[in-house]
Amino acid sequence: MILGILLSGRGSNFASIAENVLTGKLPCEIGCVISNVAAAPGLERARQWGLNAYFLDSKGKERAAFDAEVTQKLRSHAVDYVCLAGYMRLLSPEFVSAFPNRILNIHPSLLPAFPGLHSQRQALEYGVRYSGCTVHFVDAGLDTGPIILQVVVPVLPDDDEESLSARILREEHRIYSEAIRLIAEGRVEVEGRCVRIRSGK
User: Fold this and answer.
1) Catalytic, out of 107, 118, 136, 173
2) Which of 58, 150, 179, 181 is 20–30 Å from 134 (CA)?
């Protein structure tokens, strides 16, 4: 299974995935890493690891036109699944339909609660006792795709946005790779909105 990574910033989830791939813990390879930000630290890290790393400039381009460029680059590396790792762009319907149920994202909340930006801040402002993170397939909505894995992270009385985000991020690194492993092993099936995970042999 070949992965394509899309990122816009530091790419900590990308780094966690890449380390698991490079050490043989994930049965797949990274075909390419693409960023719409030239100075993205995640892109530089990909280059240091010797991965195919590309900056594609999105400025002044219609969303569908830019996504067509990204799609072409992913297909040139025979990518099977696309992993969003802090990719700060809304995807066009054309892009989503090009990779049906083959785009993964990780979100720092227990979806469907607190979609969109600043989820940890939303959780604290709402006063929830538990937050967490969700790996899901991407569909045409905002963080609305079928859920693959979730993990619960307690919200502590003295938490601020930074401390809660840090604890959630540790779990993100763990379950994103776990979701990829399950898919690579052929154990994930999508039935409507529900994801079924078959037990291992």
Assistant:
1) 107
2) 58
Fold of 1-99: Rossmann fold (3.40.50)
Class for the domain spanning 105-201 = alpha beta
Tokens of 144: 């609305």
Quick check: is 107 catalytic? Answer: yes
Residues in the chain where the model's pLDDT stays below 50 = none
Which of 90, 80, 86, 131 lies closest to 105 in space, CA to CA? 86
Please check whether residue 109 is in contact with residue 131, taking contact to mean a CB–CB distance below 8 angstroms.
yes
**Whose CA is closest to 49, among 79, 84, 17?**
17
Q: What token pair was written down for 83? A: 């992993």
Residue 12, Cβ density class (10 Å: 0-12 exposed, 13-18 middle, ≥19 buried): middle
Question: What whole-number distance in Å separates Cα of residue 146 and Cα of residue 157?
Answer: 31
Q: What is the pLDDT of residue 200?
A: 73
From 89, 175, 167, 191, select the one nearest 135 (Cα to Cα): 175
Closest to 78 measured CA to CA, from 114, 38, 30: 30
Three-state DSSP at 82 gives: strand
Q: What is the pLDDT of residue 168?
A: 98
